[in-house]
């Protein structure tokens, strides 16, 4: 059985109260303690029903709402992460082999002047290219981690589609800000876009759990700290691309927040989002190589 975290808090009494409410209404829920927090777990197939039951309980008892949408089980994010890593490895291999007699690096690099001459696909192809194995492995590792975490909020297909689009927008914005010739490759723009999405989603959860003062901003501050630690060091680091990726991710997450507030359940059509992501990447490379 796969579980979803319906609610978590440092307040064991509140978690126990919600657990009793669910058990009294026929749900097989239970509490686990990890670190300083208590987690209320429920079978993920019944998570939405349990969430609505607790909302009803809170409304009847006129309490401040402290619930957030139930998180997807973490297993839901792994397939997308595997496919992300596989896609980067495949493009890396094709580029090394100069498949079809093409120089993939030249054809796919985010060339600022060419992007604004109409070669928009470079904002996407550049995300799949890397300078060396260390560059590739680092982006696979951090990208997979952040992608899995974003998947907990909106599902794997929607998460990777959003990360891809935010990464492409980050490359476009980076090219615009330079105004002169600038070349950029690497999935790091997309990685930091995922970090930006994650920060805004986590901040939204912080509001939902009714935190006070600076503590509610802790998730966003944490992602900014990671941006500073991971995104501003190294000889060949394109700091501006990391910043624009993070900013684009934050903006993408805000769009999702608006959409999710109008929905009564989790994001549908995960397969459609996943397929669109694949089609966009394949189309971009088809245009780049012709």
UniProtKB/TrEMBL annotation:
Q: Domain of life, per the record?
A: Bacteria
Subcellular localization, as worded in the UniProt entry: Membrane
Chief location of this protein within or outside the cell: membrane
Single GO cellular component term: membrane
UniProt-listed InterPro entries: Peptidase_S54_rhomboid_dom, Rhomboid-like_sf
Gene3D superfamilies per the record? Answer: Rhomboid-like
User: Which molecular function GO terms apply here?
Assistant: serine-type endopeptidase activity
Recite the UniProt keywords alphabetically: Membrane, Transmembrane, Transmembrane helix
Membrane-protein topology: Multi-pass membrane protein
Task: Locate the transmembrane regions by residue number.
Answer: 79-100, 183-204, 216-233, 239-259, 271-288
Q: Which residues form the Peptidase S54 rhomboid domain?
A: 118-255
Q: What is this protein called?
A: Rhomboid family protein
